[in-house]
Design brief:
By secondary structure, the protein is mainly beta. It has three helices and 23 strands.
Length: about 280
């Protein structure tokens, strides 16, 4: 896949909400807004807790509290109750991958926040008490969620568990991440620094041995593919490095799988994950 150095300018806005709380100082700029069915949504949990709102999300029911204000809303319902008074949203919140997304307008109405959509810049701004955060916009795709690294964005299966890896040298965000399937059979991986670097994930681990390697390319680009086998062939771990020799940049993808059955089952999903990568210039 070619290296795409572009900001993903897609019409989208959303707010993510889940059970575990974030601190009010959480890095909201690392979150991603979504656009679904022509409407704007923003990540509920991430945005509300950035605003100092306590959020509880259990079985599709969302409770948000701050400074005596109490708000109830529900996944799939346009009904909202704030301090005992009911009203209607124009569109209902939705859930994917254990995260709840609510309409952008609701954020402003619920707790007096300034929220604006900037389609020309491909982002949405959230402002409160002198602070401002910008969330990139991404088009919603059923069953998938975006992960935003420091210099890249990638889509992953919404039911996978995300582990950010390899903190950026800039001190903001991560240059890599892995994504584990709920059955534990496979793990996807991406490493996409600003320019170039060495991935930690692809290093040979104790008990592993290299069973395959190939290098292909030209004067402009080389592709290296390597496969490791775990102890007693308990798993295999394959990775690919793509290196642009002209710009001296590189990036990696990885795919760890328990056995051939897991490989065959998840390979189409892995290829979609790999093809979704968007990389940003500085």
């Amino acid at each position: 896949m070619g290296r795409k150095r572009q900001i993903a300018v897609v019409m989208a806005l959303c707010v993510i909400c889940s059970i575990a709380p974030l601190s009010a100082g959480a890095d909201l700029d690392r979150e991603v807004a979504l656009f679904k069915s022509g409407r704007a949504y923003v990540p509920l949990r991430a945005v509300f807790e950035w605003l100092g709102v306590k959020v509880d999300y259990i079985n599709g029911s969302i409770t948000a509290t701050r400074d005596g204000d109490l708000v109830f809303l529900w996944i799939g319902s346009t009904r909202v109750v704030k301090n005992g008074e009911a009203s209607e949203l124009d569109v209902a919140p939705f859930e994917t991958g254990g995260k709840a997304f609510v309409p952008l307008r609701f954020v402003a109405e619920a707790f007096g926040t300034d929220v604006e959509h900037h389609p020309e810049d491909g982002n949405v701004s959230v402002s409160y008490e002198g602070r401002e955060a910008l969330l990139l916009i991404h088009t919603y795709r059923p069953g998938w969620l975006p992960f935003r690294g420091t210099w890249f964005m990638v889509e992953y299966p919404a039911h996978f568990t995300v582990t950010p890896r390899e903190a950026s040298a800039s001190g903001e965000g991560y240059e890599a991440a892995s994504f584990l399937s709920p059955d534990g059979l496979v793990e996807f991986y991406v490493f996409s620094p600003q320019w170039g670097g060495q991935s930690e994930w692809v290093k040979l681990q104790p008990g592993e041995k290299e069973i395959a390697r190939s290098v292909d390319g030209s004067d402009k680009r080389t592709t290296t593919q390597v496969t490791y086998a775990g102890p007693q062939r308990s798993y295999e771990r394959a990775w690919i490095e793509i290196r642009d020799t002209l710009s001296n940049t590189n990036w990696y993808f990885g795919f760890k799988y328990r056995d051939k059955s897991a490989l065959d089952r998840y390979r189409p999903m892995y290829l979609q994950f790999r093809d979704s990568l968007v990389q940003y210039a500085d």
